[in-house]
Amino acid sequence: MSNLFAFTTFYGLFAACVFYPPKEFVSMGFTISELASLWLGQELDSFIQYHIKRSIVTLMVHSLLPFGYVVGLAMRGHIDAVQILFGSENPIWLTLCICTLIGPMYTLYKILTWSKNNWSKHPIAKNLSIYCAGDENRTWTDIASNINREFMSISKLQIATNTTTKVVVTDNWIMQVSPYKLDIAYQANSSLVGYKVDIYQSTTTFNIGTVYAKYRVCTRQPGGRNFTIRLNFNDMENFTGKILMPITTEPSLAFPKTMKELWMDEIKQVIADNPVYISHEELEKCAVCINATSNIKLIKRCPDIPIRDDMPLCKICNCPPRSCIDCLVKWFIAKSVTGEVDQDESFFQRKSSCPQCRSTFCLLDISYVKYEPVEPSASKS
């Protein structure tokens, strides 16, 4: 009995790893798509055809797992296959064996049905056929060819939401790849609606935890299906920068500040405590964003002693105000802060270089600029 329990536990873990492979399995190539790569081919060569075949293989392997358990029991000697066939064993074993064969047989029937007329009955092909409405000369293969060409472009965006699902954004399409299907929408007649944020708190300092945002892709294509994508908040900037469809969010939905925004708030607070630089010349627009007024000047204040041996000395910057606070802080973060901020390291210990003359500066050297025009001297009476 203990051996049966051990085998059942082992096979249950094995089946779970097949359904939802952990990152270690993915990195070692122990996934269905990798093991069947000789038949599937390369995803980059023909994206749609690849995922049609991948969904078939995945469905067949998953349907065989219960039958594999029974085969394992027979091979381990826990049941006698011959006695089951002749009815000598407990009838429940025969019933169990028949039930485990229903899934593979039904899957085989569905695959044969899908394969008719060049796989036009497959769910992925039927989803593409929706975009052929109104044009009798176009078929799902024409849409597939268009998607395949866009997927081959280096401008596409792929975001792995977990080990079995990913979001793909091309120039005109947004797709979600999952084990059995491929959700797809044409960006020109779709919209994105954010409706939920999940926050998993972390006890680590400078870490807001893991944040996931749920979006609903709503298509206006007749016959099209809406679908939901779940993205890590760290991927949102790349995602929203790539898509073309309009984005709306629920009024009650509040996104937390990103790590970059938290850094910017802390840096701005430090700069606000520095002395203000008085300028008698009218301030121009920021040379970076060309929207805000340039309100930052670099004034060397720290002593000529590097804080660490690998830190350069701060230098005098003679550049006039040419940046706004937001652009300079973003520059400072990009050039001096990489990865997560160490808990024992302050922003005071970090340095960057002037965007114009490349003079080294630290946060103590940054000052807000206040414009005070020179009053004309009073005319002599």
Automatic annotation (TrEMBL):
GO terms for cellular component: endoplasmic reticulum; membrane. Coiled coil: none annotated. InterPro entries: TM129. Keywords: Membrane, Signal, Transmembrane, Transmembrane helix. It is found in: Membrane. GO terms for biological process: protein ubiquitination. It is a multi-pass membrane protein. The chain crosses the membrane at residues 56-79, 91-112. It holds the Pfam family Tmpp129. Residues 1-15 form the signal peptide. GO terms for molecular function: ubiquitin protein ligase activity. The keyword DNA repair does not apply. Belongs to the TMEM129 family. This is RING-type domain-containing protein. The lineage of its organism: Eukaryota, Metazoa, Ecdysozoa, Arthropoda, Hexapoda.
